[in-house]
Write a structure and sequence with these properties.
two-stranded antiparallel ribbon; alpha+beta; two-stranded antiparallel sheet; 85 residues; 4 strands; 18% helix; single chain
């Protein structure tokens, strides 16, 4: 498989910091290769994680190459099941 294992889907486990427990968000196919239900982008994950630590992902910037950049670029939506909206 090399470094291309699970190129279209990934799993992560979260605990603490006000994260509601006992949830499964999203689903992959039987092979774990493609997302088939409730996709969450890396940008969404980053936006949600920043929100949980009290930072607004749309306002958090760093200066790089002559302009302000965001970790979530121009993407990122909060994951409702985690933030409680």
């Amino acid at each position: 498989m090399g470094r291309d294992h699970n190129p279209n889907a990934f799993s992560f486990w979260m605990a603490g910091g006000g994260i509601p427990g006992g949830q499964i968000i999203g689903q992959t196919d039987d092979f774990g290769f493609r997302v088939v239900k409730q996709p969450v982008s890396v940008f969404d994950f980053h936006a949600t994680l920043l929100h949980k630590v009290g930072l607004d992902h749309k306002r958090l910037t760093y200066y790089f190459n002559g302009r302000n950049m965001r970790l979530t670029d121009v993407h990122g939506e909060l994951i409702p099941q985690i933030v409680g909206t």
